[in-house]
Amino acid sequence: MKRASKHETLDLGEMRRQITALRHSENLRITFLLNRLLIKIAYLNEPQSAAHAEQLREAFARTMADIEKRA
Fold first, then answer.
1. Where are the domains of the chain?
2. Are the CB atoms for 22 and 71 separated by under 8 Å?
3. Geometric angle at alpha carbon 35, from 3 and 22, rounded to 5°
4. Please, is 59 exposed, middle or buried when counting C-beta atoms within 10 Å of its C-beta (0-12, 13-18, 19+)?
């Protein structure tokens, strides 16, 4: 899983691609976590501010850590 640094531009398209690739899991809890994160970013073309980008980056990192723990 590719992780962006705090100073990189947040690439929501790449984030969506990574989530979609993992979303087709047999584990319903993992699918639920990914769907919840995908809903947070699905309508965005870009983050509204640097703080918003950081919030999304952290949500992505937390979700990926939770998935790795459960997988």
1. 13-69
2. no
3. 50
4. middle
Burial class (CB in 10 A: 0-12, 13-18, 19+), 66: middle
How many whole angstroms separate alpha carbon 46 and alpha carbon 59? 15
Dist. CA 37–CA 15, nearest whole Å: 10
Whether pTM > 0.90 for this model: the answer is no
Half-sphere exposure (Cβ direction) of 32: Cα atoms closer than 13 Å: 5
Q: Residue 61: which residues within 8 A CB-CB, separation 6 or more? A: 3
With a cut of 80, say whether residue 5 has pLDDT above it.
no
